Amino acid sequence: MATQDKVLSPQPRSVGKSLLLTLPIAFWSLLMFAHSWRIQRSAQIASVTTAVFMIALFFMMMRTSSTYRWRRWFFVALGLLFPVGFIHQVIAMRGTMGIPIEEMIAGRTPFCYIPIPMLILPAALMKTVVFPGSIRPHGGMSGGGMAAMAGIWLAITIVIGKGWCSYACFFGGIEEGMASVPPKPKVRKIDPRWRYGPWAVLLVMVLMSLALFEPAYCMWLCPFKAVSEYVAARNTVGTVQNGIFVLLFATLVIALPLLTKKRTQCAFFCPFGAFQSIFNKTSIFDVKIDRSRCTPCVLCQKSCPTLSLTDESIEKGETLMSCMKCGACVDACPKDAAVWHIKGTEVALKPERARLMFLYAAWAMAIMFGGSIIAEGLQTIVHVFI
Ligand code: SF4
Ligand code: SF4
To answer: Could you tell me the distance, in angstroms and rounded to a whole number, from the CA of residue 124 to the centre of ligand 2?
Structure first.
């Protein structure tokens, strides 16, 4: 391909062009939040605020060509506001965040996507779904039920693969926020073998779920039980389970991200993240290294929150399969060598076009899924004041 066909990262766009590029996202936001006009004032305020927030962030992504820097605001807001709306909903319906273990096993809990990969095998072998969440629409406390949420997960996954972990996961934002706090990491050396952690947790949890025929991860290892519904501690076992949840949350989601500036829970522990990595193979978008421009200074490697770049992968011009398409490496690269890419096209051929196409898909889904969660959390807060 002729060199002149290659388009490097552009200078900041004009306000007019950035606004034009933002228009489809603005229409999508209006469509997604239009229903709130028929309900309470607190919902209207929360929806308008969320829509403006999401449109403004997309505009800045168009104007500046930075992705990670603006996406992070959305993702941290999602991570912080999810527990607000969720805990309010659980307490309104049950009067407590503690759910008895038998109700969890019976599926009378809010739906969560994280146990999906750990329960596929038990379901296939035993011909019964053992799942901590209602499968019926409006069942349990989840509102949409498992079928609706599984459909949303599938749609997002097919298009953006492990991008789910940067644009949809309602837990990852807490640790991304923590990782953003220190200007520099206190701990720089991390054993690369920790990358296998999520796969090890996934394997152990599949086997445990199979052996016990229970959602083992939800009952024993989920760090996010500390900020959602937990096991009603009616005996020593319940107390131990809750102690594990709090310890994992404090370590993996708070302390280690503060020390390393990495998303340690996502990169070294989350079994759903490991499962989601597989779908990076089916997504048409990825992040590549243009070898012809790379020096290699490894700034991209240092900026990656999930250790998804190594000396060898940079040499090959690739990211590892754990890449969650956050864009930190693309923003960090001083040579415009880390680029967005559409599979089947030449690397670095119109990377900005690839970035735009990816962002339209990812942001539309972020508004549909994460936006509604942000609005719910905001509504809970607004409701206190009006
Ligand atoms: S930051 Fe850019 S130039 Fe440096 S190693 Fe990474 S891709 Fe190459
Ligand atoms: S390789 Fe780049 S896009 Fe992928 S997770 Fe790391 S920083 Fe984010």
So the answer is: 34
